[in-house]
Amino acid sequence: MTNYQIRLLDTPEELRLVEELQRQVWPGSETDVVPIHVLITAVHNGGLVLGAFIEEQIIGFIFGFPGLEKTPDGPRAKHCSHQMGIHPDHRDGGIGFALKRAQWQMVRHQGLDHITWTFDPLLSRNAYLNIAKLGAVCTTYRRSEYGELRDGLNAGLPSDRFQVDWWLNTRRVEKRLSKRPRPTLKLNHIARSGLHPLYPPHLRTDNLLQPPEHLPPLEERLLLAEIPGDFLSLKSQDFALARDWRFFARELFETAFAKNYIVTDFVFDKNDGSPHGLYILTHGESTLDEFE
């Protein structure tokens, strides 16, 4: 396991490292890099930039700032987590989880109990971290949230995003960030539960997953919805298929959220050699602590 340290960043020299790391995480579009002067302004006005380091080499960062959200009682303070990036050579090593846990601690020290951020709902690894491991939930789907993105990871597809809610003081979140967190779900747990997929996955002869032609009715209290286990690989092999998945996911989640479903868990399983990604959506007025 790689030994690394996480620390708050607030000097021009440190934040210049974050600026450069962005170019390695999201290559190909200089205009999408958050520049150093914006990072400095944010951290001097309540924002947080945390970096993960091996000695003096930065391998990951997370950046967010205070914001306001609309409520029936008027504006309410929250923290908006804008970016998290891990160097390509250090992914899948738990660094993202550690950065989010450090952010959780710092934002609670600021007296806030709610963090929101966006991510592409078709990226299974991100969904696994955000929903399954961190305990965020989602009821908000945003079409083309960032307009046309030009970096190498996002170019060519509508920038649809989930906006997730991370309620920092709930038992759900505290248990998942504890020293003995709840084990994440696997495919065998789903099989034993008797929960049936909303739609059967259709694996093409080239081993790429194809979405169904029509969205089935959403009627059960629990829904199980499969997405590609590796969407970026699928996109690189068949761009038209990636677009089909974007528009199917848009219909699926917009319909589900309109019917009061909540994304409460995610299964990311690689036991058979090929990754599987499945969302669990729950219907009803239950409290967040019930979805531990």
Share in β-strands: 25-35%
Number of strands: 12
Task: Based on Cα principal axes, name the global outline.
Answer: globular
Provide the low-confidence segments as ranges.
none
Order of SSEs: EHHEEEHEHEEHHEEEHHEE
- Number of H/I helices: 8
Identify the strand order in the major beta sheet.
1-2-3-4-5-7-6
Write the layout of secondary structure elements.
Blueprint: E1 5-8, H1 12-25, H2 36-43, E2 48-54, E3 57-69, E4 76-86, H3 95-109, E5 114-119, H4 124-133, E6 137-142, E7 161-167, H5 171-176, H6 187-193, E8 202-203, E9 209-210, E10 222-228, H7 231-237, H8 239-258, E11 261-269, E12 276-283
Parallel strand pairs: 4-5
Antiparallel strand pairs: 1-2, 2-3, 3-4, 5-7, 6-7, 8-9, 10-12, 11-12
Helix pairs in contact: 1-2, 7-8
Summarize the structure.
This protein has helices spanning 12-25, 36-43, 95-109, 124-133, 171-176, 187-193, 231-237, 239-258; strands spanning 5-8, 48-54, 57-69, 76-86, 114-119, 137-142, 161-167, 202-203, 209-210, 222-228, 261-269, 276-283. It is an alpha+beta fold.
Would you kindly provide a written description of the structure presented here, covering whatever features stand out?
It is a single chain. It contains eight helices and twelve strands. The chain has 292 residues and is an alpha+beta fold. The strands form three sheets. The protein has a seven-stranded mixed sheet with strand order 1-2-3-4-5-7-6, with helices on both faces. The chain has a three-stranded antiparallel sheet with strand order 10-12-11. Strands 8-9 form a two-stranded antiparallel sheet. A hairpin with a 2-residue loop joins strand 2 (48-54) and strand 3. Helix 1 packs across helix 2 and helix 7 packs across helix 8 (239-258). It is globular and about 50 Å long.
